[in-house]
Amino acid sequence: MKKAGAPAAARELKPAFLLASLFAGLCAAPCHAAEQPACGPDALGVSREIYIDRAKGTAVGLQTYPRTLDLHDHEVVLTFDDGPAGPTAQVLDALAKECARVTFFIIGRNAESLPALVKRAAAEGHTIAHHSYSHPDKTLRLMSEPAAKADIEKGIAAVDKALGVKAAPFFRFPGFADTPELVADLTSRGYTVFGSDLWASDWSKMTPKAELDLVLSRLEKKGKGIVLFHDSQAITAQMLPEFLRELKKRGYSLVHIKPGDTPTPIVDAAPDWTSTTEPIIAKTLGPKAKLAPEAHDHGAQEPAPKTSEP
Ligand SMILES: [Zn+2]
User: Fold this and answer.
1) Using CA atoms, how far apart are residues 131 and 119, in angstroms rounded to an integer?
2) For residue 300, how far is its CA from the centre of ligand 1 (angstroms)?
3) Ligand 1: distance of its center to the CA of 106 in Å?
């Protein structure tokens, strides 16, 4: 996102990419640490893959939607938004060291600026997904429907172009500020919309240690879930190695999500479910952002830290 980060990232890319390509070849697909001596038995690795039905989209993530992926206790799915950006290479290095596989929800215009990082993430086995073209400050919800759809499509095209092939049909709304119409349009075309089950609040000013403690305490409380980070945030890149070590130490397993041809394993929320993100959106964006009451069952969203949000 920040132009200043681009040249440095580009300069560092070449040797890192070569090493990474080699590493990815040694440690392909379901990357069980036990089966991958290159990663060592102590690496976090990936315990299993979950396939997201590309023929039938849905919307998951309990902070926004009343359903989520059917994870076992102590299973986590790690997701990173807003890249590629300055800290992305450091995030990729940390993930490679642990043979971890995650999903990147990429901003289209960032993919245009730093296409090599998109390619590197894919070459290292991560899932590449979409997060709009411009990440508009006003959010997609407050844009006209045609303008919001155009931004989404432009983002999809930009990420696909950087990648050289179609990215996964996964989409996350910037600031979780969706609308029922946009969600319906995406899911009808086979896109699954991802909210999150917990987040690291890495858009807030804090130290890497504070972020580590915060996200671990939230995870321990929930026991599992889809976790949201931002690879655009330097503090996340700094705390990630220790976070991955702690996951391993505390008995968590990493689940990698990929597009597939079988029904997406989902589980409904408890009957007393309420959206975490909707009150935050209402507070951040004001009354205009309020969804009609009947829409709350379908989706809505999260905190939009003004400029660099989720
Ligand atoms: Zn975002």
Assistant:
1) 16
2) 14
3) 8
CB of 67 within 8 A of CB of 268?
Answer: yes
Active site residue 230: yes
How far, in Å, is the centroid of ligand 1 from the Cα of 174? 4
pTM equals 0.84
Q: Find the mean pLDDT for residues 160-168.
A: 98
Class of CATH domain 44-297: alpha beta
- The neighbourhood of ligand 1, an ion, using CB within 5 A, equals 81-82, 174, 310
Question: 115-123 and 145-163 are packed helices; what angle lies between their axes, rounded to 10 degrees?
Answer: 70
Whether 296 and 276 have beta carbons less than 8 Å apart is answered as no
pLDDT value at residue 292: 58
Region of 4 (left: φ > 0; alpha: ψ -120 to 50; beta: rest) is alpha
Q: Which of 53, 81, 197, 202 is catalytic?
A: 81
The question of whether 135 is a catalytic residue gets the answer no
Residue 190 C-alpha to ligand 1 middle, in angstroms?
21
- pLDDT value at residue 32: 41
**Domain parsing of the chain, residue ranges:** 44-297
Catalytic residue among 131, 230, 256, 298: 230
Peptide bond before 174: cis, by omega within 30 degrees of 0? no
DSSP 22-88: HHHHHS-SS--GGG-TTT-TTS----EEEEEESSS--EE-TTTSSEEE-PPTTEEEEEEEEESSTTH
Which two structure tokens, joined as six digits, stand for 110?
């960032």
